[in-house]
Amino acid sequence: MNDQSPNSWESRADAHSFYGFTDLPTIEDRGAVILTHGKGPYVYDVHGREYLDGNSGLWNMVAGFDHPGLAEAAKAQYDRFPGYHAFFGRMADQTVALSEKLVEVSPFSDGKVFYTNSGSEANDTMVKMLWFLHAAEGQPQRRKIITRKNAYHGVTAVSASMTGKPYNSVFGLPLPEFLHLTCPHYWREGMDGENEADFTARMAQELEDMIAREGADTIAGFFAEPVMGAGGVIPPSEGYFQAIQPILQKHGIPLISDEVICGFGRTGEVWGCETYDFMPDAIISSKCLTAGYFPMGAVILGPDLTDRLQKASEAIEEFPHGFTASGHPVGSAIALKAIDVILNEGLLDNARAMTPLFEEGMARIGEMANIGEVRGKGLMGALEAVQDKATKMPFDGSLSVSERIANTCTDHGLICRPLGQSIVLCPPFIITPGQLDEMFGKLEKALTQVFAEVA
Ligand SMILES: *Cc1c(COP(=O)(O)O)cnc(C)c1O
Question: How many angstroms does the Cα of residue 191 sit away from the middle of ligand 1?
């Protein structure tokens, strides 16, 4: 629906609101979708149209859009103590409780938590912590940050520099000192005749070579998403983390797991590092941390970084960093409730129970002639459209195939996201078998329609 009359919500949105990551010609053509409310996994627009949100908002609304317990936790905390900071040795009680809970559910035996308002800020904070720490330990030259192409770590100047996407060149980013390795996507990056084990070995060798070339003592840290999310749902190649972790350890380079998407069950375990069986030095969390009911991010430091940062901070009296709303009491109360809802009230159990059905649906659609790869883990998946399945040749970029698919899905009442030439699906953890059927039915209809137009 594209209501262009001057007082429509669509026109009013266009007049005074900026959209992020939005193709403006498409909006001019189709109109924006302005939403009023949600129910379970569905959202509703100003015209009363219903959409099944196959992306859980932006990966985060895992408890759906009308969870009564989360709204109540927010209301109760607003009534009790509506806001405070975490500066100057002061902190709300709910924030103290949340840190205990986060360390308890983390893979770490002990640790400490620092709060931000977003995932980007949490990555920024982690980088500043590493710079600060290495300098305090007499290695001020240890400043370079290694990530991978296609990684998504956020949009602030530092986290955008970590993000391995070419679109950041419009800002003149990445900043110097940010290095990107090859994306460990075997299907796309594997060479002719190279098996997956050899591919993984090549990725590890590339890391070794980069460390040798740059100098191990210039590298501050290595950041990775267990499954790359916004890069197109790319699970690591077989044995990837087992191959790279020893290299990082050998050179004293901390491994940071950016679990902003994977954290709290998306990949089937609480943390993506558990799904892929590696032990990071710190975890970055956001998105599902509050099930999307409050903006909040967290850096969860493992025991080694906790001790070292503590010593470094004592030496200079304070760690000069923090956001006004870091550790917000309402966010903390919501996060405590969200963690309880996910882990103890059946959300993670349901996500696990729905995963085989989700994988079955993805595999069925993967049989279409123009789907080149189906990939994913747990309740996150992507379908990559190709012109030619055998040669993996993509569609001509000018056809905007994935955008057309996503737009056609929207017309059928399904929200899903185009990423490169892929379509991403990550339903909320409350999804039912009937709703999964609805999701794949609508998607299949849209794909059939679009492939008939372009193939
Ligand atoms: C979304 C995301 C971020 C950034 O989080 P924001 O809250 O949008 O700043 C960082 N890392 C990963 C893996 C993400 O998916």
Answer: 31
